[in-house]
Amino acid sequence: MTLKLQAQKRTAQLRQALNYNFLAKYTPQKLSKSPDERQIWQTATRGLAQILKVNHCQIELYDSSKTTATVVYEYTTTLPLDQGEVRDIADFPQVYKQLLNQQLLQFAERISVFNPQKLQMTRLACPIYNEQGILGNLWLIRPKEKMFQEWEIQLVKQVANQCANAFYQTRLYKQASQQISELEEPNQKKDDFFKAISHELHGYTSSIQLAAQTLENILEKELITPKNNILPKVFHLFQQSCQRQTQLVNELLALYHTDIYHTKSISKWIDLSSWIPKIIENFLDRVYIQQQKLTFDIAANIPLIKTDSFTLERIVVELINNACKYTPQGGTINISVSTFEEMIQLSVSNTGVEIPVYEQQRIFEQSYRLPGKDFGSRKGKGLGLNLVQNLTEVLGASIQLKSQDNQTTFTLLIPVQESGLVRDIA
Q: Residue 43: inside a domain, yes or no?
């Protein structure tokens, strides 16, 4: 009989140890991931009540002056009895004096506030605290004859400590989130203002450019004579200035919207053989006026690509615009499309400019321009190529630069998706 009792006792101890190990690993980890205070209390009380098999498990928190304690969460096998109950610390000075000194209590006593049924029960009160301070207490209640053993007390202490850590982490997270929101508000206002003023400027520059073109047409028909042939030159300079301002506004708008292209981009299948010529058409007048030559070559059997056409168009327009700016009179701009190792190569090259090797690494930096270069009316703000690089990353593509023998080439490398669709323009 004695051996049997010893075996049963040993089995019970092993079971308790297993329960302790399980809860010690499970509850603290779950507490640390709790996003709000209620989940912290719920996890702690439910876990302890189920493992330790107690009738009630509740958490009370002190007010800021430590004069009252309010039951904020209660797990019980019967109906909740004390949740929301406010206890006056002064009514139980001996109990709370020890608890406020971070001393655990276990006792059996008829205290109506803790036991409305006025039954004698065993109560374990464990302070919830860490190095940042004391928050309240973790209460566990079970029948009088079932005292809490040492391993159970140690487990409750550990859970109480984890509750305190999780609570302060949650409060810290809320404070940080509030501070971030307060910081984001003026930034959002600044961004909204930037967006509004950029769109406003875009409208003004477009109107000015249209008015300049209309006025120039009228002057060409009615006022230009051999004596006042200076007017076309003046309007040509005026139009160039309008184009530069329009380009700058477009670049600012595009840079502003780059960060939202990830979420708002819409991909569709594009046939480059018919898509690129439509973009090139917008540059023909400019190339003619600047006395440049523009050519377009596309290889046979170029597959369709699935991408965001708006973003890709911004990249191609910026590359062609950049080539137009830096190609001298009589120079050549060439746009070509080919395939190489599961990639589509879209290249824009121009003659007349060679970028030194030591400058090529910085060419994509925002507001960077080649030092010592006097481009006259073609002077830009250094935003175009930075925009190209940002948008290229959005598409999941890459950009390469090659500059030698008085020629510069930018090559956009776009991964080929398997669509089974090919355009043969041979």
A: yes
Residues 173 and 278 in one domain: no
- 10-residue mean pLDDT profile of the chain (426 residues): values are 56 50 49 64 84 87 92 80 84 90 84 56 90 90 85 89 84 75 68 64 65 67 56 66 68 58 67 92 84 92 88 89 88 94 93 86 72 47 74 89 92 77 43
CA 76 to chain centre: 42
Residues 313, 362: Cα–Cα separation, whole Å = 24
Rounded alpha-carbon distances, angstroms, from residue 315 to 84, 344, 373, 398:
62, 15, 24, 11
Q: Is the dihedral of CA 218, 221, 227, 233 positive or negative?
A: positive
Residues 6+ positions from 361 with CB-CB distance below 8 Å? none
**What is the Cα 222 distance to its own chain's centre?**
58
Q: Of 177, 193, 214, which residue constitutes the final position of a domain?
A: 177
How many domains does the chain contain in total?
Answer: 2
Q: Is the pTM of this model over 0.85?
A: no
Whichever domain contains 107, its CATH number is: 3.30.450.40
Whose tokens are 């308790």? That residue is: 16
Size of the chain in residues: 426
- Return d(Cα 35, Cα 84) in angstroms, integer: 22
Tokens 């009895």 belong to residue: 81
Angle at 218 between CA 214 and CA 224, to 5 degrees: 135
Q: Which helix (H) or strand (E) holds 70?
A: strand 68-76
Residue whose pair of structure tokens reads 């300049």 in the numeric block: 212
Phi/psi-derived region of residue 408, left when phi > 0, alpha when psi is between -120 and 50, beta in every other case: beta
CA-closest candidate to residue 135, choices 202, 73, 61: 61
3-state class (DSSP) for residue 30? helix
The answer to whether residue 243 sits within a structural domain is no
Instruction: Give the SS3 label for residue 420.
Output: coil
Whether the CB-CB separation of 415 and 343 falls below 8 Å is answered with yes
Question: Is residue 250 a part of any domain in this protein?
Answer: no
Q: Report if residue 230 sits inside a domain.
A: no
Encoded tokens for 171: 């409060």
Q: How many CB atoms lie within 10 A of CB 169?
A: 15
Nearest to 106 by CA among 124, 127, 128, 93: 124
Domain encompassing residue 313:
265-423
